Amino acid sequence: MNPSQWDRRISRANDLAGAYPFAAEILRFYQQMAGFQRDLYVQVSSVSNGQAEGRNGGSLREELDLFVVLPRFPAFLSLIHEVGPVELARSANELMEQGKDRWTNLLTAYWTEDLSDDFPAENPLQFFPRAFLQPYAEYRAHNTPHSLAGATPRFCPLCGGKPQVGVLRQEGDGAKRSLICSRCLTEWDYRRIVCPACEEESVDKLAVFTSSQFPHIRVEACDSCKTYIHTVDLTKNGLAIPEVDEYASVPLDLWATENGYTKMLPNLLGF
User: How confident is the model at residue 126 (pLDDT cuts 50, 70, 90)?
Assistant: First the structure.
């Protein structure tokens, strides 16, 4: 990957903000954050000389190089304090006052936490390590030798993260399903008619809901575990970027919540 991919994400957020005014504030905030993430990705790549680091597949989280990333954390907190929603801005200010030891503990705890367990995503403080370390995790994923051919686990085969969003891509006369990791944005194949939360396979218990407002985004819900995940159908909109389009679909989250479903993992902005 190179910085142009971040530029495409930022550009897509801008397009979506124009198309969905109700999500404009969220998407503008994402644009600011993504600009910082792009710069951090470039910095990490520069320090590492853009070379593969020779780790075995599945070892992405064996170490956290705080020497590289920690000096950038104050700038990230300043950005969120300046442009973030009120609650996040207040938390950023509090974290800024708590200093390096607190930052180190927060980042390390997130990096070593198994997101396949009951990760406290509803805690506003978890936004900071998730958002800040995402480009670092993505860089490591891009430079960790691996083969995802035939891999169909519920959680990311590289870092163990929960899926954030699903994807449908054209394959033959139909569409192939994959999942995108919430931590390192790795994409891997997953079975089409299976709940990624509990592995329910009964068609009668797996529901798909769509809205004319978002014809390319589906709510895939499970009546066994009452969870859901968004899936972006690229066969209906080839311009979509799943990890970005997911931020615009807040009305679908509201609908799912009102109907008794819980998201498998809230996105970075808590939806």
Answer: confident
Full residue range of the structural domain in which residue 94 is found: 3-142
Burial category of 132 from C-beta neighbours within 10 Å (exposed 0-12, middle 13-18, buried 19 and up): buried
Which residues share a beta bridge with 240? none
DSSP string, 131-180: HHHHHHHHHHHHTS----TT---SS-TTT-PPEEEEEEEEETTEEEEEEE
Longest dimension (CA), the chain: 56
123 and 185 inside one domain: no
Q: Do 235 and 177 share a domain, yes or no?
A: yes
* Inter-residue contact 162 to 265 (CB < 8 Å): yes
**SS3 call for 218:** strand
To which residue do tokens 């163990």 refer?
160
Domain identity same for 136 and 7: yes
Degrees, nearest 5: CA angle 209-211-214: 115
DSSP string, 222-237: ETTT-EEEEEEETTT-
Is residue 206 helix, strand or coil?
Answer: strand
Lowest mean pLDDT across 124-133, 145-154, 230-239 = 145-154
* Residue carrying the six token digits 């030891």: 101
Q: Are residues 167 and 123 in the same domain?
A: no
Does 179 lie in the same domain as 114? Answer: no
Q: Which amino acid, 218? A: R
Name the phi and psi angles at 232, rounded to 5.
Answer: -95, 120
CB 214 within 8 A of CB 252: yes
Give the Cβ contact number of residue 242 at 10 Å. 23
User: Model confidence over 75-109: pLDDT tens digits?
Assistant: 999 999 999 999 999 999 999 999 999 999 999 99
